[in-house]
């Protein structure tokens, strides 16, 4: 079998819509930019990914527990976190096309263009200068750099740019039943703060000892200036975050440990090691003393999928200062300067992965087009090579034909499996077309009920990836397929 040419993002978008994975939101009204709905197969794949992450965090670690914090939080939360004062992107408009861009993304795209043209030193110099200007908040200098690099608007083709302005990314709304009594609150731009404000609630109620972690999966909202590349950058998205609380001075040990652990997790999902890489941050966020991204090679290049950050005590200390409530941990095991006890604000190591980005990475990796056969008889075959534990359906039960009791027997087999793993029944069209339907949504096993089944209670299992077939007793199906599709297979590989 020969591998087909590289997959384009358009291939992914088209397949995702046609086979019930991702739809444009409110499409009958021409959609809403950068907002997507997960279809009947997409929601299953995404839920399986979230389950894998949740189990990897809370089931494999005795010292990590989960919470589910509210989306709405007291507005002072975002003052303490720095989001009200500093959560913004540099925005620039083209006066001719009226199109809005992120200034840093225009410069990053130019740097990629220079690197592709064999000028990596110029590319690095450009990124370094951009970082210097942004750190100094020299927005005039950023505009001048864009013009000096002759960066043109993709629509108008001109360099007629406005001034660069900072654009706050938080969505705000009003809470209260009477307009004049209402106050402004925000849709959370990240899930981490819900963990930080519950740090002591969890620590005390769970009798947790440092080091320990708190995990959370939840929606976050950012009013992105330029949302693009399908589900990679959206205005409503889902985060899977874990904040790991450690003794000050041990944070770099834990940072490196979680860096390796998280890379191992992505490989366990089936993402190839050569499509993943670490990218250390050149410019650190205001709360971090170390930061690295795990990047996946999407059809549009290596991009961030997960971030691992050493956040120091920035968040807990700021919440303590603003709320006037102590956020300290009483460490009975600490013996410092001859003192038998110690109180301190823990340092935090964060792992934060976008559920939607991870979905897109797994979907892109699974999308496979192969040439089957040779010469004039060669045909292209498309299928989703998903890890069996992640597939929307684990097995499809197909009667060879719908007569002579085969359909009824196949329905009986399907019903017997449904309580063990997600199973579908299909008797429409020729058997080859039904195989193809299941391949296109990633079903790893097709179980065929034929005339021999009626004689000896055996069926044929057809394997998605190899198209090989084997004869198996109906009585053995639960154990055989159940083992392969269990979430255990992913957890064992971590």
What does this structure look like?
The protein is of the alpha+beta class and 494 residues long. The chain folds into 3 domains: 2-78 and 189-364, Bira Bifunctional Protein, Domain 2 (BirA Bifunctional Protein, domain 2), CATH 3.30.930.10; 91-168, Herpes Virus-1 (2-Layer Sandwich), CATH 3.30.40.230; 386-492, Anticodon-binding domain (Rossmann fold, 3-Layer(aba) Sandwich), CATH 3.40.50.800. 35% of the residues lie in helices and 26% in strands. The protein contains 17 helices and 24 strands. The strands form 7 sheets. It has a 7-stranded mixed beta sheet with strand order 4-10-11-17-14-13-12. Strands 21-20-22-23-24 form a 5-stranded mixed beta sheet, with helices on both faces. A hairpin with a 6-residue loop joins β5 (88-93) and β6 (100-102). α2 packs across α12 (355-366), α5 (103-116) runs antiparallel to α6 (120-135) and α5 packs parallel to α7 (139-148). It starts with a strand and ends with a helix. It holds the Pfam family HGTP_anticodon. Homodimer. Belongs to the class-II aminoacyl-tRNA synthetase family. GO terms for molecular function: ATP binding; bis(5'-nucleosyl)-tetraphosphatase (asymmetrical) activity; glycine-tRNA ligase activity. Substrate binds at residues 102, 190, 237-241, 350-354.
């Amino acid at each position: 079998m020969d591998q087909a040419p590289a997959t384009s993002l358009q291939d992914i978008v088209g397949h995702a819509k046609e086979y019930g994975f991702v739809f444009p939101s409110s499409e009958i009204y021409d959609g809403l930019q950068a907002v997507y709905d997960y279809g009947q197969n997409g929601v299953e794949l995404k839920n399986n990914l979230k389950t894998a992450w949740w189990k990897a965090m809370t089931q494999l670690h005795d010292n990590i527990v989960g919470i589910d914090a509210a989306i709405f939080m007291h507005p002072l939360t975002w003052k303490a976190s720095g989001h009200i004062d500093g959560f913004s992107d540099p925005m620039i408009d083209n006066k001719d096309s009226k199109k809005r861009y992120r200034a840093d993304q225009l410069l990053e795209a130019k740097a990629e263009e220079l690197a592709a043209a064999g000028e990596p030193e110029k590319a690095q110099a450009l990124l370094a200068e951009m970082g210097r200007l942004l750190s100094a908040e020299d927005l005039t200098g950023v505009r001048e750099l864009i013009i000096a690099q002759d960066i043109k608007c993709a629509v108008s083709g001109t360099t007629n740019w406005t001034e660069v302005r900072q654009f706050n990314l938080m969505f705000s709304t009003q809470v209260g039943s009477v307009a004049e009594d209402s106050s402004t609150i925000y849709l959370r731009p990240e899930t981490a703060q819900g963990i930080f404000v519950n740090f002591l609630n969890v620590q005390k109620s769970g009798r947790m000892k440092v080091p320990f972690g708190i995990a959370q999966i939840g929606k976050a909202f950012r009013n992105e200036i330029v949302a693009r590349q399908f589900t990679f950058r959206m205005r409503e998205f889902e985060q899977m975050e874990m904040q790991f609380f450690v003794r000050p001075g041990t944070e770099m040990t834990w940072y490196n440990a979680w860096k390796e652990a998280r890379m191992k997790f992505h490989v366990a999902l089936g993402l190839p090691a050569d499509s993943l890489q670490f990218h250390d941050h050149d410019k650190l966020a205001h709360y971090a003393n170390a930061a690295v991204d795990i990047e996946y090679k999407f059809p549009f290049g290596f991009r961030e999928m997960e971030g691992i950050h050493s956040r120091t005590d920035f968040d807990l200390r700021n919440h303590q200062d603003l709320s006037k409530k102590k956020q300290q941990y009483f460490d009975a095991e600490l013996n410092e300067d001859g003192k038998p006890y110690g109180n301190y604000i823990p340092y935090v190591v964060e792992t934060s992965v976008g559920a939607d980005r991870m979905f897109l990475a797994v979907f892109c990796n699974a999308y496979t087009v192969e040439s089957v056969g040779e010469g004039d008889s060669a045909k292209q075959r498309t299928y989703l090579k998903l890890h069996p534990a992640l597939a929307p359906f684990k097995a499809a039960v197909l009667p060879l034909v719908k007569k002579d009791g085969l359909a009824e027997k196949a329905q009986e087999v399907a019903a017997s499996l449904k309580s063990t793993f997600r199973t579908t029944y299909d008797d429409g069209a020729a058997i080859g077309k039904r195989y193809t339907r299941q391949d296109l949504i990633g079903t790893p096993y097709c179980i065929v009920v034929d005339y021999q089944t009626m004689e000896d209670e055996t069926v044929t299992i057809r394997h998605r990836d190899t198209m090989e077939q084997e004869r198996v007793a109906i009585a053995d199906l639960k154990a055989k397929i159940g083992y392969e599709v269990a979430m255990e297979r992913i957890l064992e590989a971590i």
